[in-house]
Known about the structure:
By secondary structure, the chain is mainly α. The protein has helices spanning 4-30, 37-58, 65-96.
Amino acid sequence: FSLKPAAMPLMDSGKALARSGELLIDLTTSLDLYGGSLSAAGASIRNSGDCLAQAAASCRFKTAAELVIDELREGADCLKEGGDKLEGAVKESEVDK
Length: 97
């Protein structure tokens, strides 16, 4: 079997996630919210996108199935962490009111 057909959709998804994380980080900068949960969520989401992009790059190799699975798992962990950080950001915003 070949993972090559999955490379482009994975790369596109990785780029979109990474960009989403960057936008969250940029938002915290414009709001002067440095070092908070929202910024940490953006970093985690960006890292998740980077993992997907790395998985996409590995799809070119016939023997890379295990590496792709590992990168996808790492990306999922980063995305879960980002979701947890977003929940923390909501709590932080409620305290700031």
